[in-house]
Design goal:
Distance between the termini: 39 Å
Structural class: mainly alpha
Radius of gyration: 17 Å
Largest sheet: none
Helix content: 55-70%
Strand content: under 5%
Number of helices: 5
Number of strands: 0
Protein backbone atom coordinates (compact mmCIF):
# COMPACT_ATOMS: atom_id res chain seq x y z
CA UNK A 1 0.00 0.00 0.00
CA UNK A 2 1.22 3.49 -0.80
CA UNK A 3 1.85 5.83 2.10
CA UNK A 4 -0.31 8.88 1.52
CA UNK A 5 1.30 12.30 1.43
CA UNK A 6 -0.49 15.31 2.78
CA UNK A 7 -0.80 16.84 -0.66
CA UNK A 8 0.44 16.69 -4.18
CA UNK A 9 2.86 19.29 -5.57
CA UNK A 10 -0.12 21.41 -6.66
CA UNK A 11 -1.48 21.55 -3.12
CA UNK A 12 -4.37 19.17 -3.79
CA UNK A 13 -4.74 15.98 -1.77
CA UNK A 14 -2.82 13.13 -3.37
CA UNK A 15 -4.86 10.28 -4.80
CA UNK A 16 -3.97 7.00 -3.14
CA UNK A 17 -5.61 3.61 -2.70
CA UNK A 18 -7.12 4.94 0.54
CA UNK A 19 -8.37 8.21 -0.93
CA UNK A 20 -10.76 8.37 -3.91
CA UNK A 21 -10.05 10.62 -6.85
CA UNK A 22 -11.78 14.00 -6.83
CA UNK A 23 -15.20 13.90 -8.43
CA UNK A 24 -15.74 15.77 -11.65
CA UNK A 25 -18.82 17.71 -12.64
CA UNK A 26 -19.32 15.18 -15.44
CA UNK A 27 -19.25 12.27 -12.96
CA UNK A 28 -21.77 13.95 -10.67
CA UNK A 29 -24.04 14.67 -13.65
CA UNK A 30 -23.79 11.05 -14.78
CA UNK A 31 -24.64 9.79 -11.29
CA UNK A 32 -27.66 12.08 -11.19
CA UNK A 33 -28.77 10.75 -14.58
CA UNK A 34 -28.16 7.22 -13.29
CA UNK A 35 -30.51 7.85 -10.39
CA UNK A 36 -33.13 9.33 -12.72
CA UNK A 37 -32.97 6.18 -14.86
CA UNK A 38 -33.29 3.99 -11.75
CA UNK A 39 -36.42 5.85 -10.68
CA UNK A 40 -37.83 5.58 -14.20
CA UNK A 41 -37.08 1.86 -14.25
CA UNK A 42 -38.76 1.32 -10.89
CA UNK A 43 -41.86 3.20 -12.09
CA UNK A 44 -42.04 1.61 -15.57
CA UNK A 45 -45.17 -0.52 -15.97
CA UNK A 46 -43.82 -2.58 -18.87
CA UNK A 47 -40.84 -4.96 -18.56
CA UNK A 48 -39.27 -3.73 -21.82
CA UNK A 49 -39.28 -0.14 -20.60
CA UNK A 50 -37.98 -1.15 -17.14
CA UNK A 51 -35.16 -3.13 -18.78
CA UNK A 52 -34.04 -0.21 -20.95
CA UNK A 53 -34.03 2.26 -18.04
CA UNK A 54 -32.15 -0.19 -15.81
CA UNK A 55 -29.50 -0.75 -18.48
CA UNK A 56 -29.11 2.98 -19.14
CA UNK A 57 -28.74 3.54 -15.40
CA UNK A 58 -25.87 1.05 -15.21
CA UNK A 59 -24.28 2.59 -18.30
CA UNK A 60 -24.31 6.03 -16.71
CA UNK A 61 -22.89 4.70 -13.44
CA UNK A 62 -20.05 3.03 -15.34
CA UNK A 63 -19.46 6.20 -17.34
CA UNK A 64 -19.17 8.14 -14.06
CA UNK A 65 -16.25 5.92 -13.05
CA UNK A 66 -14.60 6.51 -16.41
CA UNK A 67 -15.18 10.26 -16.03
CA UNK A 68 -13.31 10.22 -12.72
CA UNK A 69 -10.50 7.81 -13.65
CA UNK A 70 -10.11 8.68 -17.33
CA UNK A 71 -10.11 6.37 -20.32
CA UNK A 72 -7.61 3.54 -19.98
CA UNK A 73 -4.70 3.79 -22.37
CA UNK A 74 -3.83 1.05 -24.82
CA UNK A 75 -2.40 0.75 -28.31
CA UNK A 76 -4.74 2.39 -30.81
CA UNK A 77 -6.03 -0.87 -32.32
CA UNK A 78 -6.98 -2.29 -28.96
CA UNK A 79 -8.57 0.85 -27.52
CA UNK A 80 -11.71 -0.03 -25.58
CA UNK A 81 -14.78 1.36 -27.28
CA UNK A 82 -17.49 0.94 -24.67
CA UNK A 83 -17.79 1.59 -20.97
CA UNK A 84 -18.06 -2.17 -20.47
CA UNK A 85 -14.68 -2.66 -22.16
CA UNK A 86 -13.08 0.18 -20.20
CA UNK A 87 -14.16 -0.70 -16.66
CA UNK A 88 -12.13 -3.92 -16.27
CA UNK A 89 -9.07 -2.04 -17.50
CA UNK A 90 -9.63 0.59 -14.83
CA UNK A 91 -10.36 -1.98 -12.13
CA UNK A 92 -10.27 -5.76 -12.74
CA UNK A 93 -12.77 -6.24 -9.90
CA UNK A 94 -15.42 -4.71 -12.18
CA UNK A 95 -15.08 -7.48 -14.79
CA UNK A 96 -18.20 -9.34 -13.60
CA UNK A 97 -20.30 -6.18 -13.70
CA UNK A 98 -18.95 -5.33 -17.15
CA UNK A 99 -19.80 -8.75 -18.54
CA UNK A 100 -23.27 -8.63 -17.00
CA UNK A 101 -24.22 -5.30 -18.52
CA UNK A 102 -22.42 -5.85 -21.83
CA UNK A 103 -24.51 -9.01 -22.27
CA UNK A 104 -27.72 -7.00 -21.83
CA UNK A 105 -26.83 -4.28 -24.37
CA UNK A 106 -28.07 -6.21 -27.44
CA UNK A 107 -31.44 -6.81 -25.77
CA UNK A 108 -31.72 -3.11 -24.93
CA UNK A 109 -30.93 -2.30 -28.57
CA UNK A 110 -33.72 -4.60 -29.79
CA UNK A 111 -36.21 -2.96 -27.44
CA UNK A 112 -35.10 0.51 -28.53
CA UNK A 113 -35.50 -0.57 -32.15
CA UNK A 114 -39.18 -1.15 -31.45
CA UNK A 115 -39.34 -4.89 -30.85
CA UNK A 116 -41.92 -5.72 -28.22
CA UNK A 117 -42.15 -8.66 -25.87
CA UNK A 118 -38.37 -9.09 -25.92
CA UNK A 119 -38.06 -8.95 -22.12
CA UNK A 120 -40.13 -10.73 -19.48
CA UNK A 121 -40.87 -9.35 -16.03
CA UNK A 122 -38.30 -11.54 -14.27
CA UNK A 123 -35.46 -10.41 -16.58
CA UNK A 124 -36.41 -6.74 -16.19
CA UNK A 125 -36.63 -7.02 -12.42
CA UNK A 126 -33.29 -8.85 -12.22
CA UNK A 127 -31.57 -6.21 -14.35
CA UNK A 128 -33.06 -3.43 -12.23
CA UNK A 129 -31.79 -5.12 -9.05
CA UNK A 130 -28.33 -5.45 -10.61
CA UNK A 131 -28.37 -1.82 -11.74
CA UNK A 132 -29.21 -0.68 -8.19
CA UNK A 133 -26.42 -2.86 -6.77
CA UNK A 134 -23.94 -1.58 -9.37
CA UNK A 135 -24.90 2.01 -8.59
CA UNK A 136 -24.05 1.38 -4.94
CA UNK A 137 -20.71 -0.19 -5.94
CA UNK A 138 -19.89 2.87 -8.05
CA UNK A 139 -20.83 5.26 -5.28
CA UNK A 140 -18.64 3.35 -2.85
CA UNK A 141 -15.71 3.40 -5.31
CA UNK A 142 -16.13 7.15 -5.61
CA UNK A 143 -16.28 7.65 -1.85
CA UNK A 144 -19.98 8.50 -1.78
CA UNK A 145 -22.71 7.01 0.35
CA UNK A 146 -26.48 7.18 0.51
CA UNK A 147 -28.57 7.58 3.61
CA UNK A 148 -31.83 6.76 1.81
CA UNK A 149 -32.89 4.10 -0.70
CA UNK A 150 -32.85 5.13 -4.35
CA UNK A 151 -36.15 3.76 -5.56
CA UNK A 152 -38.73 4.08 -2.83
Amino acid sequence: MTTPRASSPGGLPEVTADRPRPLTTAALDLLERCETELRAAAAAPEPDERYVHAHLSALRAGAALVAVHGRPTAPRRSQPRSVWEMLPRLDPDLEVWSRRFASTAPVRARVEAGRTGVVDTAAADALLADAVAFHRVVEARLGLSRLHPLAS
